[in-house]
Amino acid sequence: MQMTKGKQLYEGKAKIVYATDDPKQVIQYFKDDATADNAKKRGSILDKGSVNNQIASHLFQLLEKEGVPTHFIEQLSDREMLIKHVEIVPLEVTMRNITAGGICRTLGIEEGIVLNPPVFEWHYKSDELDDPLINDDHILYALKAATVEELALIKKLSIQVNDFLKAYFAERKIDLVDFKLEFGRYDGQILLADEISPDTCRFWEHGTRRKLDKDRFRRDLGDVESAYQEMLKRVVG
Amino acid sequence: MQMTKGKQLYEGKAKIVYATDDPKQVIQYFKDDATADNAKKRGSILDKGSVNNQIASHLFQLLEKEGVPTHFIEQLSDREMLIKHVEIVPLEVTMRNITAGGICRTLGIEEGIVLNPPVFEWHYKSDELDDPLINDDHILYALKAATVEELALIKKLSIQVNDFLKAYFAERKIDLVDFKLEFGRYDGQILLADEISPDTCRFWEHGTRRKLDKDRFRRDLGDVESAYQEMLKRVVG
Is A229 helix (H, G, I), strand (E, B) or coil? Predict the structure, then answer.
């Protein structure tokens, strides 16, 4: 499909969104820029934009087949994804299958504990507030950021995404530790939006627990680029 | 009732628990010590122990009549309450009718917004971790600190307590802004425990919004003792 890339609508930490001729469609451009610790740590990961676009495009298409509606329309190029122009719900979902990161700090528990059933979290999407953990009542009665029906649907879809991805990665000898999802409103529908990539998931090589995700950047573990390439190979290759 | 005060079992920030001859009963002694900001701020409020014991004893008896089971047995003296020896569930419930304190910082919203329905929060009772906000999944699947049935019962009782207290204080021209509850296990039952007092509630004089609770100490507003005495008069007097 030929799309004319219009003016820049939004620049985030890892992506830029451009208008197209069609107000219902926008282009999501994936950058190599990497940030961590709420942008207090900044850097770049060579070819990350390309890897994340390929991984996310692949996974969105698989999820669509599983009945999860997403904002994905088409991968336009190496770093460009054509998507439906959603209004992002200002919430982030975190699904956790194994403890790591925030939950360890919040609860004072070790990394690597298997959570079964998985732990579901709502975070309020706010850089100023550091994406705080919140609960249903905060969303419904204090922020009024979504309806009861939207929360129920987003939760149901998130569990469906986790069930599918966990099995998909397990076949590829990858433990899906946790991941972040965002959703958007589009024509009265709720669509899975943003991306699914080593930026937004924690992936551990099964057995060795070698980290194959952005934690290599966050924690200065080295071999960041090769971890992203390894994930591309396992997901798409 | 005559009770022999035995050895000290536990000393908290505002209370000491002593054994009695009966292993099923203990004495809760109310101190004047006041702490705030997770004990980084320390001080003392004259006669606070006596005021809180009288207010809590009075409210526990009213709540028992409303069908809320509590640990209260008898007020033994000015600062001593005989209670059932519960095993404290390591959770704190916060019920919020008006925004103030933590919720304003977490969500970046103003103090004084009416929440209707009220907002219910779970916090993990941990001084080291600063009593973090958590959700049901954390309790059930990560901490394994309570059962589904216990959480449902505690939530139901907390709403019942809020409904009763909100109306009770409204009659006394006090807005019940928010409060913290703790619960304990005793003989297979869940009992309301700890205390209900100006240490654990936010009380605003209706209309003027003058603070009549521990925020006067937390924020160095002055007239701390007289606020506690005023609440004693309105509740018991």
Answer: helix
Chain A nearest C-alpha distance from B49 (Å)? 32
What does CATH list as the number for A87-223? 3.30.470.20
Over range B98-116, report the average pLDDT. 98
Looking at the domain that runs over B8-84, which CATH code has it been given? 3.30.200.20
**How close A142 comes to chain B (CA, Å)?**
6
Contact B157, B150 (CB under 8 A): no
| Structure-token pair, residue B41 | 């701020």
Q: Over pLDDT 90: what percentage of chain A? A: 95
Closest CA to B213 of B1, B5, B36, B9: B36
ipTM for this prediction = 0.96
Tokens 């006090």 belong to B174
CB B6 within 8 A of CB B22: no
Q: Which chain B residue shows the shortest CA-CA distance from A128?
A: B108
To test the contact with chain B by mutation, choose from A125, A135, A155, A162 the residue with the greatest count of B C-beta atoms within 10 A, namely A135
Query: Same fold for the domain at B8-84 and the one at B87-223?
Result: no
pTM here is: 0.96
In the stretch 101-120 of chain A, residues with CB closer than 8 A to chain B read 103, 106-109, 113, 115-120
What pLDDT digit, counting tens, does each position of A95-110 carry?
999 999 999 999 999 9
